[in-house]
Write a structure and sequence with these properties.
The chain has 319 residues and is of the alpha/beta class. It has a single domain (84-318), classed as Rossmann fold. The chain has 11 helices and 9 strands. It has helices at residues 2-8, 30-36, 59-74, 90-105, 130-139, 150-163, 202-217, 232-235, 240-252, 272-281, 309-318; strands spanning 44-46, 52-54, 119-123, 142-147, 167-171, 189-194, 259-266, 286-294, 297-305. The strands form 2 sheets. It has a 7-stranded mixed β-sheet, sandwiched between helices. Strands 1-2 form a two-stranded antiparallel sheet. Helix 2 (30-36) crosses helix 3, helix 4 packs across helix 5 and helix 9 runs parallel beside helix 10. The longest helix is centred in the N-terminal third of the chain and has 16 residues, at 59-74. The chain is globular. The N and C termini lie far apart (58 Å).
Length: 319
């Protein structure tokens, strides 16, 4: 009886690499998820370690899990994405938003900023609209989401409309621009977020997909797995992550008065040196690197501001 009581009161295992405010820092509670999303049940099974999980090689299973998590943890009852578009891992996306909240708090005596007074811009929001969803639901921030892909724009608009979210969707008509054509002349943003395309070519993206499958399954696949897929503009661009970020940094200089903090996810550690050089060239006043981790994967956020500490605190006071 004592052992049974001990197991019943045992604290859930915590994913220590996730942010302390991340709702997903413990293992997924599949019984509760299934209770409010019954269609998830057929995708849940017990693995060889005796733990409930889903088949992450199934695109349908991953999408249903995301729908369930968004409904259970964020109250998003209507979320879907077009076939073939990127279905993001929600815990990692949530971590980005929580770290950004801490970044903004660093200019306001560590007070976590909440409410629509905070204006955030997501560059390349995708069809899933995940950063604006989490930012709005966790902190009630006012979001603008931009994308070059019209299908992504239409998908995000449906998500926003069907869930009454405070997100303004804008189409970036020029694939060579990031902020130009999106930020209006007198518009101010407290922060921008971005998850850049990772690969430099379609062939590289396919190779990475198949390598991931091999590492997970221990066998060589015959074709890429759609669960790890996405549209080409979501996965790769000419020059890959580094060129994308360097071009974004260069253009950010033109909007130094409009934005308090620019940020981007950087997946490849080896790109940091050249990113720092680009920021130095653009005379960014303050640069911060924020480490992130999910499972065995490590990444980081690079944030830069053209405002000094006094100017940032003044920005916060006047906001």
């Amino acid at each position: 009886m004592g052992e049974e009581n001990k197991s019943n009161t045992q604290k859930p295992e915590v994913k220590k690499r996730l942010h302390r405010r991340n709702r997903h820092k413990t293992k997924y509670n599949f019984p509760k998820l299934i209770e409010q999303t019954p269609e998830l049940e057929k995708f849940v099974s017990v693995n060889k370690y005796g733990k409930e999980t889903i088949n992450f090689f199934s695109a349908e299973a991953v999408k249903i899990l995301n729908q369930s998590l968004l409904k259970f943890d964020y109250g998003i009852k209507n979320w879907d994405i077009p076939s073939g578009y990127l279905c993001p891992p929600i815990p990692g996306r949530a971590d980005y938003i929580h770290h950004i909240a801490d970044l903004l708090a660093s200019d306001d005596n560590k007070r976590i900023p909440k409410g629509p007074v905070i204006h955030a811009l997501d560059i390349g929001m995708g069809a899933n609209c995940i950063y604006p969803i989490i930012g709005h639901c966790e902190y009630d921030w006012d979001f603008v989401g931009s994308d070059i892909d019209l299908t992504s724009i239409n998908s995000a608009q449906e998500i926003v409309k069907n869930n009454s979210l405070s997100v303004n969707i804008r189409h970036q008509e020029n694939i060579n621009h990031f902020f130009r054509g999106i930020i209006n002349p007198n518009e101010l943003f407290d922060v921008t977020v971005c998850n850049p395309p990772f690969h430099a070519s379609q062939a590289e993206a396919i190779s990475a997909n198949m390598k991931k499958i091999k590492n997970l399954k221990g066998e060589k696949p015959n074709k890429p797995n759609p669960s790890f897929g996405g549209m080409h503009n979501e996965l790769w661009c000419e020059g890959g992550e580094l060129r994308f970020i360097k071009n974004m940094i260069k253009e950010s200089k033109q909007f130094e008065k409009n934005v308090l903090w620019f940020t981007t996810l950087v997946s490849k550690h080896g790109n940091l040196k050249n990113i720092y050089l680009a920021l130095r060239k653009m005379e960014a006043f303050d640069v911060k690197t924020i480490p992130m981790g999910q499972g065995n994967k490590s990444s980081r956020i690079v944030a830069w501001s053209y405002h000094n500490s006094y100017e940032r605190k003044k920005w916060v006071r006047e906001r």
